[in-house]
Amino acid sequence: MKELKKGVYWVGATDWKVRHFHGYELSTHRGSTYNSYLIMDEKIVLIDTVWEPLTDMFLENLSEVVDPRSIDYVVVNHAEPDHSGALPAIMKYVPNATVIVSKKGIETVKEHYHTDWNFKVVTTGERINIGKNDLMFIEASMLHWPDSMFTYLTGENILFSNDAFGQHFASSEIFNDEVDETEVYQEAIKYYANILTPFSKLVAKKIDELKALNLPIDIIAPSHGILWRKDPMRIVEKYSEWAAGNSQKSAVIVYNSMWGATHNMAEFIGKGIGQAGVEYKIFNISTADRNDVMAEIFKAKGIILGSSTVNNGLLTSLMPVIEDLMGLKFINKVGTSFGSYGWSGESPKLLTDYLTKAKIKVLQDGIKIKYMPDNKELEDCLQFGKSFAERMLTEF
Ligand code: FEO
User: Fold this and answer.
1) How many domains, in total, are found in the chain?
2) Are residue 187 and residue 319 in the same domain, yes or no?
């Protein structure tokens, strides 16, 4: 339990050991937190809860500040189970408390818990007086679910932004001025790249709307990870940059290889990129973490996919990356492909077709090499990488 401002407490749960989210889809190397907040005004307000398995820890933290039976309002900013999982446990203490939800939230909460609590639906700009201060609501649909909503506390100037501006980051501290911000920003960009990119246009619009409200903001309190107290609008500006799809002048090579030929091609394509003065990173997808790789692709301008040809197709380990590229809808990227083969050699063409489907501009056809590349063919790979990087630089 920690006090954010007078009468406003963090009462969430810290999950030091979680390493996967959304089933096994998303890696969380630094653990995570499920941030729940308690406001002690004339009315007592709980904002979001925690994932159901951490209910006991949450109730202990909450009970350090208040008897849960005295809660008047429960704000559900978002019904995904990592934030609403302990809602049924809370509602057992206060079955008649008002559950505040967005228009879509009433549907998502009911469809998760199949219980008709005392719901109050709120819309953007609506206020509820809780004594000294008001709660004000800002719908944030598709950031990242239809029901997502921000809650703003007047007087104390705290924006409870739920998933937006969050990061999977377990910590003994709660504010950005108390921890190593480099680590926090790395987790924030990974979170954005892997979860929010399909909604970038809506993110940009929501940020404009938020700025237009001209609310004084002292703290941005997301539902995962660290809270932004020092220079809180910096993360908002970062979100604007990320939503705009501004890329670094760098390239990422992602490949897999059966006997090392495609690996050797990757190395020489990388050297060529480097000779053009462009920074590059190489990931063998059989050993790299896919979500980390997606964060690196998100930062870079160029993406080069490589696979040996097998069964007239691709190595299967490339497919999750391709699925992510199509689903996450990165913008303003350019790409190409490569791969070795024995007799048919379809993989580079298949890879550029996938890049096109993912709306990544293919700057040049892929390169393929039969069996093991010799010195001349490695030089071809080097020149291939160099020409890709030179073309990529003209795209800025
Ligand atoms: Fe952290 Fe959308 O749940």
Assistant:
1) 2
2) no
